[in-house]
Write a structure and sequence with these properties.
homodimer, alpha+beta, Nucleoside Triphosphate Pyrophosphohydrolase, three-stranded antiparallel beta sheet, five-stranded mixed beta sheet
Chain lengths: 182, 182
């Protein structure tokens, strides 16, 4: 089922946007062109629990959708990150100011494998303790929400968590902790 | 928390790619530019059950990720679609050849609200009956899998369903049918 890439051209390659157009050949010889691929570095996120069992959610404006979104923290794997967990811990510290006793890898997911070349790696982070004020990038305004498991389940039931990778993360974290069974 | 758009420029606007670069102004007056937004029409998908309780999953090559993906059927809302359910039924018939007795709206989700301007609308489709051979677009090669609920739960547990909007859809469908509780 895999396609061959006969030609590949970058239309943009800058800090915020890497976009290429491929000419693809299917197994039956048919040519598909252009096929646009959005390139991103891999992403990391965690369902982060504080020591007293609250989930650290964040609330921020997301300009593409044009709306406020209730999410879990995370971000891009950077060049300097030695591994995925280090990248995740760095992002959590920057966005929430918390450090965590333990990380468990839960699963990987894709926002959309037909447009994006990257994966999101998802952790469960436990034993969170506040250490620092947030260290936010320009353009980031992040409000912290400390919510109980029941409050987060309520947000899920009411369809108030709109980012699909974060819904996925919460489901896998709740399954790991036996808070749901699937 | 909302941003103002001071300027907006389309870099691409064709059938497969609509990409704009915004100059944004935050509430504190800070300017963010460029902010790239991928525009798409809204998407529709369903967790589709046959009359005898199998879930109709599809398997296809996804070129951006460069891998085979096990998904549920769906696609874009087209100009000619009168409503979301009609769009969803059209996509399911094209991709699977099945028609359904009933549709229930479950929830909406976003692949990524920081990059995409659109939403995916998710239905539960029940009472599926095979009607036609698939009517696929150029570039679509879709293998049909008829799986039991337990088989799909197994795929979820093994992290074999990689598309986050589809994981979200399955969780909400299973919750609606009381096959999981969250």
């Amino acid at each position: 089922m895999h396609w061959k890439i006969n030609n590949s051209e970058y239309l943009f390659k800058n800090h915020w946007l890497t976009l290429r157009a491929d000419t693809c050949e299917k197994p039956d010889g048919a040519i598909i062109e252009p096929y646009y691929v959005y390139e991103f570095s891999d992403w990391v996120t965690a369902v982060p629990f504080t020591k007293d069992g609250k989930i650290i959610m964040i609330k921020q404006y997301r300009h593409a959708l044009g709306d406020i979104s209730i999410e879990i923290p995370g971000g891009c794997v950077d060049q300097g990150d030695t591994d995925l967990q280090t990248a995740c811990a760095r992002e959590l510290l920057e966005e929430t100011g918390y450090v965590f006793d333990s990380y468990k890898y839960l699963c990987k997911t894709s926002a959309n494998p037909s447009t994006n070349n990257n994966l999101m790696h998802i952790f469960l982070a436990e034993g969170g303790k506040w250490q620092n004020v947030q260290q936010l990038d320009a353009g980031e305004d992040i409000e912290i929400l400390l919510l109980s498991v029941d409050e987060v389940k309520g947000l899920l039931k009411e369809n108030k968590i709109i980012q699909s990778m974060h819904v996925t993360a919460l489901m896998y974290a709740f399954e790991k902790l036996k808070l749901i069974a699937f």
